[in-house]
Amino acid sequence: MLAFTFLYEWKTLIDTHSGNTGRVVFIIVSQENFNMKSKLAFLTLTLVLICTGPLYAAEPRSEANPLQILRAALDLTQEQVTDIRGLLEIRADAIGTISEQIQLLQKQLEEILKDDTADALEVGEIVLETRDLRKEIGQAQESFQSDFRALLTPEQVGRLGNINRVALATKAAEALRQLRLR
């Protein structure tokens, strides 16, 4: 019989030095017939709380969406934001339609390949058609990027270039860290 009282409570702590917040679990246990099974159950529960604590303790996600972040970083006007939303919808529609076609082709290919006597010509045609559709997705993305840049002022294009350079430098720094070169 599991005979102990278990109480835990999340507390939010604020690191006054860095301003970061975190959570701590306080566990209070009163021991009554605390046998080996009870100890094992307690230990398991404690480990689960400790391991999952960081998942719940993560700082709340920012309510800002990527477009709001870009608006602030590039100093976009409301008209530009509206136009970008339109471009995003056009891209999503185009890619969504193409993706559906690719899925249908993949299902068709799976059905054909179930048969040991599948026609190689038919398989090849489906593979080539799928490849062409994937190219169309790339073209839709390139078109979106081109149209997006066309909406920006020269100053905003410069800021975008700076952001891209910082993103690349961040990836490079992470690669150096992973290779233990920094």
Key features?
two-stranded antiparallel ribbon, Four Helix Bundle (Hemerythrin (Met), subunit A), disordered N terminus, 182 residues, 5 helices, alpha+beta, 69% helix, 12% strand
Write the layout of secondary structure elements.
Elements (H helix, E strand, L loop, with lengths): L3 E11 L6 E11 L4 H22 L8 H9 L3 H37 L5 H32 L2 H25 L4
Antiparallel strand pairs: 1-2
Helix pairs in contact: 3-4
How would you characterize the overall build of this protein?
The protein has helices spanning 36-57, 66-74, 78-114, 120-151, 154-178; strands at residues 4-14, 21-31. The protein has 182 residues and is α+β, with helices and mostly antiparallel strands. The chain folds into two domains: 4-57, no CATH class; 66-151, Four Helix Bundle (Hemerythrin (Met), subunit A) (Up-down Bundle). The protein is flat.
